[in-house]
Structure formats: C-alpha cells, structure tokens
Amino acid sequence: MKTVLSGIQPSGNFHIGNLYGAINQWVRMQNEYDIIAMVADLHAITIPQDPKKLQEKIKEVVALNLAAGIDPNKSHIFIQSENPDHTYLAWILNTITSFGQLERMTQFKEKSQKHEENVGLFDYPVLMAADILLYQTDEVPVGEDQKQHLELARDLAEKFNSRFGEVFKIPAAYIVNETARIMSLQNPEMKMSKSDSNPLGAINLLDSEEEIRGKIKKAVTDSSSSISRNAGSAAISNLLTIYASFNNQTLDQVYSELEGKSYGEFKNLLADVVVKKLLEIQKRYQEIREDEQALRKILDQGRDYAISKSSQTLLEVKEKVGLV
Ligand code: ATP
Ligand code: LTN
Q1: What is the overall mean pLDDT for the chain?
Q2: Domains in the chain, start-ordered, CATH in brackets?
C-alpha cells in the first residue's frame, strides 16, 4: 500500500475549500492508501500564535477531520510536535541544505515581509522535508503554493542518498483534482482562503446557519439574472462548482438541473445544501470534540503509529551519518 502524508496547519478557520480541496480527497483515498494526516503545529508557530488559542485550534482541526470522514481505523492522524523525530531529522537535513535553496522560497519571501522574520520561518521547508521523508512517503497532496517545498524535499532526499547512501524514498506530488478549487465568494479571482481579510469570502465549516445563508446571499454574481450554460461568469461558475461538490454531481448535471433558474432561486438552493451538509458535520464535530478521552486515544494511536515508522528511518539516517 502506498503511503500518503498530508499536513494541515492548525491556524485560521477551516472553510469549504479545505473540505473539498483537501479533507474529502483524503477521505476518498482511505481505502487505497496508507494515509498519515499530520497537524503541523510546529509549522504554525513560525508565525506568532496566541498560546491559549493554539491548543484549542489543534483539537479543532483533529475533530473537524474526523467529523468530515477521516476514519481512525483506516487512517492515522497525529500531532507533529508529539513525534520528536521530525525536529531531529530537520536538524540533520539542515546540515545539507544551502542558504540559497531556502532564500529562493517564495513563501518565505512573502511571509517574512508580512510578519516579523525569524529563523523558523526560513527553515520551515526543511522541517516539511523531514515530515515527508521520515515516512518513506510515496505521494504528498500539495496545492500550488507548496510545490516548491516538495521540490526541496526531493532535492534533499537525493542529496542525502548520494552523499551517505540510500535511505529515503523520493516523494511525488499528488495532484488534486482541479475542479476541487473553490474561489472566494467576494472575489472569484482569488482562492477561498483562511487568511482572507474579508470575512465574507469564505464559508467556514463551523459557521452558523445564519452566517452561511448571509454569506451566500451576499456572494458576488454578475450582470445577468439567471443561470445559462453558455454565459457563466467566474463568480457564478464558482457557486455552481460549490453546488456540484456538495451534491456530488458534475457541472454538466448541475447545468441541466438549474438552467433558467434565477440567481435568487439558485442561491436559496445552494444555501440549503451547504447548510444541511455543514450542520451534519458540526453535529458530529461537537460529539467528537466533547469526548476528550476518545480524541486523546485516537491521537495516541496516531502518534504511536507515526513513531513506529519514523523511528526506523531515523535510525538508518543516524547510522549513515555516523551518529550511532
Ligand atoms: P492560506 O490561504 O491562509 O494559506 P489555506 O486556506 O490555503 O490557508 P492551507 O492550510 O494552506 O489552507 O491548506 C490546507 C489544504 O486545503 C491544502 O491541501 C490546500 O490545497 C487546500 N485548500 C486551501 N484552500 C483551498 C481552496 N480554496 N480550494 C480547494 N482547496 C483548498
Ligand atoms: N506547509 C503545509 C503544511 C505542511 C505539510 C507538511 C503538507 C507541513 N508539513 C508535509 C504536506 C506534507 C501548508 O501550509 N499547507
């Protein structure tokens, strides 16, 4: 069985883009792949976090993933900082990483302009390489913004293998279906994002029914007034994509169903399906989130599984480098 490692940061609010672009893809892959889902808390603190809120966010991401269908009997979910092998391997990889490789990273350039710079932000991609390489990962589901980081992981694996001897499997990108990309409700040119400053752009998984309906009502459309297969603007296509995703339909099926309907009518239908689905997830979320003991047990099992795999790789690394 192939191993897939995915990481998600416990920061910001999780939205329907994360649900359809990431979580649902993992849920679908659970039967064919060994999915290791990691909450990247050590990555999150490269940007200042409120320590009280961080702990809550970590549990929130775990519970949301489980509520959305990650099955702990099939997949493994764990918290990065609970497996010390990640920081250990990152240190060793640091010693074969050049400044130039990290200076080229566009995410570092962007983030260090927006936030106070720190060495952790600079070193972020090396820790991510360690995350991936520790599990002899076959495929990593990454969006456009993380491709450069995956490339670094591949480069470091090759460099290590050729300098010290074969240890690491070279990971490949798992390209997520393009239709799964959901755009901002306020600006269809921008992807729906946790860090959007306009709160109306994203529908969050934990939004109330009133918030969901309000955001859909205020979503931008275009100068026409009804749905037509040949005249769809980016804004309307995005709303139709959301409708299709929530109904498990293709865009073609959605056009056949909705052609001729007014935008007002369509928005009501869309709000109904989104509310129904998110309220279901929220109900499961509350149950999971309230049972701290059960949640802890799932995380303990995830951590133990993670360590059972990563410790083998790390031991080989130490032997090759001459540390044992
Ligand atoms: P930010 O925009 O602040 O970087 P984000 O919303 O992109 O945050 P990430 O934690 O970077 O969230 O991404 C988590 C996962 O969700 C990634 O796999 C990413 O590809 C996916 N994802 C994020 N936004 C969308 C979107 N609008 N449509 C589809 N998938 C998305
Ligand atoms: N940097 C990623 C999160 C992340 C990750 C990983 C993803 C951390 N480690 C390992 C895949 C594999 C992000 O911000 N989305």
Answers
A1: 94
A2: 3-180+291-321 (3.40.50.620), 199-285 (1.10.240.10)
